[in-house]
Protein 1
Amino acid sequence: MDKVIPSLEEAIADIKEGATIAIPGFFSAGVPRLLLRAIIAKGTKNLTLASGCGPLLGAHEELDMLVKNGQLKKVIDSYALYRSASKGMQHPFEQAVRAGEIELEVYPMGTLAEKYRAAGAGIAAFYTPTGVGTMVEDGISNIHKYQKKEKRVFNGREYILEVALKPDYAFIHAATGDSEGNLHYRRTARNFNHVMAMAARVTIAEVENLVEPGGLEPEHIHTPGVYVQRVVKVPRIEIKIGID
Amino acid sequence: MPKFEGLPRDMIALRASKEIEDGDYVNLGIGIPTLVSNWIEGRDIILQSEIGMLKTGPLCTEDDDVDQDLINASCQPVVMLPGASVFDISESFSMIRGGYMDVIMVGALQVSEKGDLAGWSNPARGLVVGNIGGSMDLCAGAKKLIVTMEHTTTEDEPKVLKELTYPATARGVVNLIITDLAVIEVTPKGLVLKEIYPGLTPEDIQSVTEPKLIIAPDLKEIEF
């Protein structure tokens, strides 16, 4: 079963306007930068990017291009803004959020992780204690007012009902993949990659090393190929660590 | 509001480090909590990082090879200690939310006398949205939650309040507040002043703290 696509362009060719794409990465680590650059080159508009912990702060040059091209409708994240308020004011993404041109919907990080995992695991929704007694109960967005989340008491403690998040596509970054879509991540670059690969309807993985089936030890496979539809070989690029 | 000179940030961190016992699994938040790691080197304490790592080591120095695939939750290059493990994000938040961390230390913008904590959103920024990160999950799963912060804002306003005025991170979760001026325990009866910066009086601390403080019978100077 060969899932290798010869180019990034072909791997994303069917992505249409209005698609929701999961973007993994924890700040600078594990971000699918080359797939992001391919969607920038393609110019697809009205996108919702569903992330987990600031991959677009880590890949801020790519974010600036997406904003400049007017490709973003919405971003879902737990940490999408510069820490420094004064630096944030200069940031095209935050300016667009302030102007109401891009929606930013915010969740606690662990809730996002579970929303993706649940989507991949066939779970419609789950009760979590995270966010009880906070604005999370009402949903946090700069544009939309969402329906208040259902609460329920288990063993004397309150929990919030959160629903699964199933993106149309996931862009994945892995250190090594085989041609059948089995993936291995390095160090802390794993972060959201596995749960997002599980969650999406179509998962596209960029891999720094492409090997034949058998080239990865079965015990070293973090994401089994069943979750991955397309694999593209990319070069390992040097990235700058750090956010402002 | 009066203004008092107290401990520098690294000394708040040193005092906070005394709350961690050998054998503890600990998650340290951004800000003063990060400085706590400087005071526990060589002790039998395991640091967890939200990004998906146990036994997170110190920040990379000039002698270390920086690995772009190895950062902590503050996006700084780090090294791993022998016995470290890395895992995915849902595993990471399972151990946080699931209550496997013995001690969690966070910074705060405000703390209330009921143990409510505000830290993710400063209304002065003029945005409804903000950076929650892992803070709410850390509070939800904490066995022992310690806040380290300056006692007052840069405008000398109190940060220890009767009720939060900023958006809450979590309610009724804080166990201990360690500031540059005092160590205060959150109890069902109210805030108990346990330790105090040398040279200050309980009245001094009360004058920069909104809720009424209960003075501990064994009140002492801050101990290291």
Note: Residues 9-211 of chain B form a domain with the Glutaconate Coenzyme A-transferase fold (CATH 3.40.1080.10).
Protein 2
Amino acid sequence: MRIKDLQLRARAIVEGFQNGLHRSPYHGFSVEFNEYRPYTHGDDPRSLDWKLYARSDRYFVKKFEDETNRRCHLVVDQSRSMGYTSIDYDKADYARTIAATLAYFLSSQRDGVGLVTFDEKIDQVISARHRPGHLRQLMVALSRPLSGASTNLNSPLEQLAKIVSQRGLVIVISDLLVPIETIGSSLSLLRSRGHEVIVLRTLDRGEMSFSATQPGMIVDIETGRELYIDPAIASRLYDIGFKAHSQQIKSICDSLGIDLFEIITDQSLEKCLYDIVTVQHRRGRQVARRGSAAVSLGTAR
Amino acid sequence: MSLLAPLYVLGALGIGLPILFHLIRRQPRGRVVFSSLMFLKATPPTLTRRSRLDNWPLLLIRALALMLLAAAFARPFLRSPVLENDEASGRRIVLMIDTSASMRRDGLWQQAIDEATRVLDSLKPSDELAIVAFDASTRLAMTFDESASLQRQARRSLAQQTIRQLNPTWSASQLGQSLVFAAELLARTESAAGTDGVQLAEQANGHLILISDMQSGGDTNLAAVQSYQWPESIKLEIHSLAAQKSTNAWATVLEQHEDDNDLSVEKSDMKTEVANKTRVRVSSAANSSASDFTLMWASAIGQPIESTRTSVNVGPGESRIVNLTDPPESMSDTTTSRLMLTGDDHDFDNDRFVTRPKPMPRQLLFIGDSFDEPRESLLYYLQRAPLDNRQRTVTLQQSDAQALVSPPNKDLTPLVIVASRVDDTGAAALRKYVQSGGNVLWVLDGNTDLAAAQASLRIVGGVADLRLSESKVNDYVMWSKIDFANPLLRAFADVKYNDFTKIRYWSHRNIEGLPDSWNVLARFDDGNVAWTESTDTDGHLWVMTAGWQPKESQLALSTKFVPLVFGMLGQSDADFALQSLVVGDGIKHETSAGTTLELPDATVVKFEDKSGEFVASTPGFYQLVEGERKRTFAVNVAEFESRTSPLPLDELERYGVALGTIDESPVAAEQQRQRRDVELESRQRLWQWLLCGVLLLLGLESWLGGFLNRRHSAVS
């Protein structure tokens, strides 16, 4: 977060991450060779493996994993609750950096990347493309300051489902501090359209438990509503409520087949990214055989 | 028990606030921003152990100390009836009563007496009173000391008696200096009281009550107020009196223009036309309602001369100058007459007393030769110079030097002009004449025998080494270094008249050996003396070193000649001046046995003792008899006293006088009560005792706190 420029920051993370990949145990899986199968009439002769033919004098077709260009939409929460922090930088900074990093990462492997920012409504929409200057446009859109008063997950995701007709990958980056019912309805809508959905829940360490020690007025960062809180009583209730909320989100995501990652802002970005990629990669290998689309993150180099 | 600053008592509420806050709830320290309140619920404030009061005695002591402190700041004091009465000794009042001549108008004086009585009735028992009567002079009729030494009833009757003894005079009103006098009287008593610090607050309680007709004529004297720093604490309350009728007019006899007599020979024709007329200015007050008035001469005893009746129309606030025909000589007194004005409502200023001295016969003695040729003759030009005026008729007499054996009468012959040789007898006679106050002009013209003149002049002037010689003149000389400070030449000091360069001299004589006591009135531009004057004697000896005839110079033909001779003639004419005095002026008299003064009411005052002044207090004719010499003075009411239109009151304020009323408005009464309270409080100083109490309580609190602390630590 010490690097001011978002694109530069994303590049630094991706490069560091890629260097890390080279040192990882998964080094060498770059060519996703899938299987050989005998040539049949109607196959494209260009896919024949001529080297194997030379060795075995039989026609084989070398089959690779589907590596078509993916369309990925980053849905970033820009509401004021993302402005909360208990450390140097806030959740919104962290979310931006993740979004920028992913955008850079995806566009570096020629995938189309789109961006949707929202608060209580959709703020900006940049459709998924891959062309020169597009990444820069994404970065500019991400750099805008927080504006929205409250978070409403439902209507932005509904609109997104309407806008994006082609199936693709949707990465939702938000703290999901909204009523649980809106989360379930909006995510299921996306899934029903066939999108692969990943939820990156960005949280501050201070939000995971109520940490105030003195009784005092607590102000809602979004609505400005004030409550007199005595932490002696309130912190216990908060922990219970927060955990139940998290649990419900997890169960919704599980039921919908959505990958949920809880990202704490004091953690290293590379590690988070690495976890995401690893999980996706494993999952992608499992799902790839079923023809799933959610492999691009896992296969990317 | 009363409080001077009761609002400070609210400070005692301070003790309740900590207890209140402590008991109700602890105010949240601050506001903390949090991302979402969805997992939080408001918690009601609770009473904790720390909210309860532990040390009641300490709290009580502290609260008591705070209360005492608040009470001390509120500055309490005790009222007592004795002090109330004592404090009521308040106001110093100066009652000013106008006794000027304009108060003689119809009913005004009675109004003034009534008004003064009303003021006396309205005074409080504790008030101190002084009474000042003023016209041209200011008199303290009753002092504060007299007032203070008497009981209420006696004081009131004394004041009434004093007022009854007052009467309007004939003097003019000098309002300005009287106001300053009264204000200083108040300020003086105040500063005397101010030495006692306790009464300092009482000082602001000075009042002036002015009972006057406030005639605008008085404003000519308000400059005295302007130059005086009017004390702000002294308020002037004006009780203005108004006459029922307002028309007032007055006549003033103007003196003949001196210019007519002295400087403008050319106007002599015109002068003869108005010779038997008197210039009279008729003025009317600004608030007059009538404008037609009649002027008439009357004899000294007031018998009117109907033939001189003249109507004059003068509008309100205007004035007009009329040429009034003089009364016939046969019917009027030889020297005195009276000008009467009728047609207005008030007659206090309707009579003007005029002395009209008959021209006195005077002689100008010329000792010298006459010449047929006018260009060579000094006498020729003297004969043609008009030397008469209203006071004298001058006859010119030529005489031989030998005829002069005894000194001439200096009263009948005010000037002797010598232009020829005089023998020793004549010179001795002239010497005596000059010593007794006569005037001699010695002209050294071209026909003069210088040796004989030198011998004679040495005798007449009393200068032994005086030398005369003929001077040599190239072309011509002029006068220079003219002493315009000398009375003879003062008339020419103005730049319009001080040009002597038109007068050229073709020959002149030198005079040397003059002592320092001789003044040189003029020198020629070659440095020689042109005109000199001896100052050793009562009279004057002038020596001119050149003649005025055209053969010698252009002096006789210049416009300066007649005024010069006129001036020399007039040197002893002071007695002839028109004696016009106003009431209040002094008539000077010399010490000599048998000097008497006859007043207008025919009483005769004899002055036995020293010389001095007799102050004329009524208008009319005063005849001063000093031996054989009789002089008559006309004394009139001052002209500005006649301006009876009322003075706008804001005029006084413009001069810085603080106007106000003595009647205490609720605000003023409240202010006075507050002043009294302040004084009471500063005497009693209860706050000091309260502060002592606070200190004691704080000491007790410290001790108790320490004690409890020790006990607590010992227990724990």
Note: The interface with chain B takes residues 81, 83-84, 91, 175, 177, 179, 204, 207, 210, 212, 214-223, 225-230, 233-234, 237-238, 241-242, 245 of chain A (CB under 8 Å).
